[in-house]
């Protein structure tokens, strides 16, 4: 985990959603930030380049939020799973809370379906199962979990498609997950 000033990613493009001092997650690692309902925090990872990115917003009943991002290469699946299991154990979600998430998975081309098949689909499905099982096993409560898959092309590295995953926990109590700079999932109190 590094701040934007320490990050090697800060010279690879302008990302206005990230402010100085916010958290940037490097490849083969994870990071998280916590915010009270009136606080604003951001966390991001860039240049997935064939890696799998996972972003979660965990909302507690009091409106506080935790934003978690991991960025792991396909050969680091055990580390990715261990990191996800750890976050589900550390952050118990009581009644009235919810978890929203996005998994960014690279697309691969085949002769029959160019650019339409998700690479490492077994890993992606396993991550989804681990998240559901981990959060549900932490308590026997009414818990809302919504995790979506956002496919991306690792070959499209341009200003608008750079393999970026960002979570913004806004001061208004709304948390938003951005994939490729596009808002794809929001979480309110």
Strand percentage lies at: 35-45%
How many domains comprise the coordinates? 1
Under CATH, the topology is which?
60s Ribosomal Protein L30, Chain: A
* SSE order, one letter for each helix or strand: EEEEEEHEEHEEEE
Q: What is the global morphology?
A: globular
Strand order of the largest sheet: 1-2-4-10-11-12
Query: What is the β-strand count?
Result: 12
Q: Decide which structural class fits the backbone.
A: alpha+beta
- What is the CATH class name? Alpha Beta
Amount of helix: 10-25%
Quaternary structure type? single chain
Integer average pLDDT: 76
General description of the model:
The structure is a single chain. The protein is an alpha+beta fold. It has a single domain (2-187), classed as 60s Ribosomal Protein L30, Chain: A (2-Layer Sandwich), CATH 3.30.1330. It contains 2 helices and 12 strands, in the order E-E-E-E-E-E-H-E-E-H-E-E-E-E. The strands form 2 sheets. It has a 6-stranded mixed β-sheet, with no helix packed on it. Strand 11 and strand 12 form a beta hairpin. Helix 1 (77-90) runs parallel beside helix 2 (121-137). The protein is globular. The two termini are 27 Å apart. Residues 1-17 have low confidence and may be disordered.
């Amino acid at each position: 985990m590094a701040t934007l000033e320490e990050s090697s990613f800060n010279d690879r493009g302008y990302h206005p959603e990230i402010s100085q001092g916010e958290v940037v997650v490097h490849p083969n690692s994870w990071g998280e930030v916590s915010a009270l309902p009136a606080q604003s925090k951001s966390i991001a990872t860039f240049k997935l380049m064939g890696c799998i990115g996972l972003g979660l917003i965990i909302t507690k009943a009091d409106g506080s939020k935790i934003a978690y991002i991991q960025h792991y290469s396909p050969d680091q699946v055990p580390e990715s799973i261990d990191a996800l299991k750890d976050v589900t154990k550390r952050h118990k979600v009581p009644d009235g809370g919810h978890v929203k998430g996005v998994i960014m998975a690279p697309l691969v081309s085949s002769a029959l379906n160019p650019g339409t098949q998700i690479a490492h689909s077994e890993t992606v499905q396993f991550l989804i199962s681990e998240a559901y099982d981990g959060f549900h096993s932490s308590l026997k409560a009414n818990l809302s979990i919504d995790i979506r898959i956002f496919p991306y092309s690792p070959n499209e590295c341009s200003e608008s498609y750079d393999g970026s995953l960002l979570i913004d926990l806004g001061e208004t109590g709304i948390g938003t997950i951005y994939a490729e700079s596009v808002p794809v999932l929001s979480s309110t109190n």
